[in-house]
Amino acid sequence: DLFSVDPKSGWVSVAKPLSRDIAVSVKLSIVVTDNTAPMLQQGMGTLIISIIDVNDIPPEFEPPWTRDEPNYLLEIEEEQPIGSLLGKFTALDKDSSIALYVLEQDGDMFSVNNITGKGLVASRPAFDNLNPLNLGAFDSGEFWINFDYS
Ligand SMILES: [Ca+2]
C-alpha cells in the first residue's frame, strides 16, 4: 500500500511515507484495461520501484559536544611550538561519510587536518587575543562546534 495508481490517468503516487526500513525495492503488477472494446482487452506489466537512500542525518562530534551545547572548552598554554597538537576532534555520521572538516577563525593561529578533523594544531607561536573558533564537519549537510578558550 505504499503506492497508489490513478485508475484514469495511470499516474502512480506515493501513498505512505517511504523508508528503506520498510522496503528497498517494490515490485508492482500493472494491468491496463480497454473498457471500450466489445471483448475484454487487457495489457499487463511490471513496475519496479527502487527506493534510494537519502543522506538525512548530519554529522555529530563526540561528547561533551551536543546539538544544543555544541561547545568544547580547551585549556592550552601560551607559547606553544608551531605544530603542537592541541586537541583531536572527530565527527561521526550515521548514514554517510564525513567529506571535510573546516576551521573558521579570525586570523591563522590554528590549523586542522581537513580530512580527519584530528589535530587542532598551533600554526603560530603565540596565542594572543583569542576568539571563539568554529570547527565544522561536512557531509552533504553540515554541523559546527565552537571552541572557547581559557
Ligand atoms: Ca549524513
UniProtKB/TrEMBL annotation:
Subcellular location: Membrane
Domain Cadherin: 3-61, 68-128
Stored SUPFAM superfamilies: Cadherin-like (SSF49313)
Region forming the signal peptide: none
GO cellular component assignments: cell-cell junction; membrane
Main localisation: membrane
Gene Ontology biological-process annotations: homophilic cell adhesion via plasma membrane adhesion molecules
Molecular function per GO: calcium ion binding
Entry keywords, A to Z: Calcium, Cell adhesion, Membrane, Repeat, Transmembrane, Transmembrane helix
PANTHER family named in the record: DESMOGLEIN FAMILY MEMBER, NEURAL-CADHERIN
Name of the molecule in the record: Cadherin-87A-like
Organism the protein comes from: Diaphorina citri
